[in-house]
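Batch manifest, entry 17 of 40.
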Amino acid sequence: MLLLPLALVGSVAFAQADPTQPAVESFTEIAMGVDVTVKVVAPEASDRLAAARLAMAEVRACDEALSDWQASSECRRLPRTAGAATIASERLFTATARSIEIARATEGRFDPTISPIVQAWRTARAKGALPDTATVDAARSRVGWQHVGLDARARTITFGCDGMALDFGGIGKGFAAQRASAAMVASGQPNHLVAVAGDLFAGPVAPLGKLGWTIRKEDGLDEPFELVLLGEAVSTSGDLEQFIEIDGVRHSHIIDPRTGRALRERTASCVRGPDGATCDALATALCVAGVREAAGLMRAFPGYRASVITIESDGRRTWSTTPGPEGPPCAADAVTVPKGVIVPDSASQPQR
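Output type: C-alpha cells
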C-alpha cells in the first residue's frame, strides 16, 4: 500500500564549515517500488557511502524476500497448496511471524494473508469497476491469518487453505527501514535516518547539536506538524493519493481484510514507536479501525503513540494517544506487542 509522505526537514550539508566535524550526506534510490532515502552522519565520505550501500542492500534484500509484485520474489514462490510446508529465509519467516502477531493483536484489521482480496481489487481498479460480490467472497475464503502455520525451529511456513498468499504491502517498508538501520548500527554507523517512502527509522545517535532528526508529517486531512525522531520509527497511512471513484463513491486503496471491501471514508493515521514493522502495520490497522475503534486497538500496543483522522458523513473526527506521535517519547517505548493479546472493544464485524 502507498503510505503518505513524511518529509525530511532541513537541507543536507555536504560540506561543513569545520571539516573536522562529521557531515550529513543523503543517498536515494528506487527500491520496493518507492524512493528510499538514507541520510548518514560521519566524518569520512567513504564511511557515509559504505553505510548507505549497506542499508540499501538490506532494503533490496527485503524486497526480494517480501515483494508481491516481483514474480521472482521468495514470497511469490511460496506454494499455494494447503499443507505444503516451505522452508523460508530468515527475512521472510521473521516478517511473516511478526505479521501474524500483529494480525492477532488487531483482530484481523491488519492481515498479511489479504493478497487474494488485494489482487481482486487491483483487477477491478484496472477495469474502472468494483469487484462483484462473488469475486470478493471467493477471495475472502482464502484469507485468514489463523490459517498460517509457522514452525520456528524448522523455519517453515504452511498455508491451511488452497490458494492462500501473503501480502506485505502494509508492513514490508517499515520492516525494511528498521533492518537497514540495524545493519548500519552493527557496522559502527549509528547516526543515520532511513526513509522507505512514508516509513522512517532513525538511528540511536543524533546529528551534532540536535536532539534527533526533524520530520514534518503531512496527510492532507490535518494540519502538518513536526516531530523529532531518535532511535525509533514513524509510519503514516492513508488514502490521499490512491483511490478510485465510481458512481460518485470514493473507494480507498485500503481494504478491510475482514469484509474484503475498500474503505469509503477518508482516513489517515500516524504511528510512532520502537518497532518499524509494527508502526507500519498498525498505521494500516488504524485506518481500518477508524476513530471509533482506535482506542480499543491501541490498548494492545503499549509504548506506541498514534493519531487517526476519519472524515465521516457527519463531519471530521480525530483521536490520538496522549502524547500523540509528535509528543515526547513514552517511558514504555521498549515494550513491543505482547503475544496473544486480545484487543478489547472489538469491531462489530465478527472474526471469521
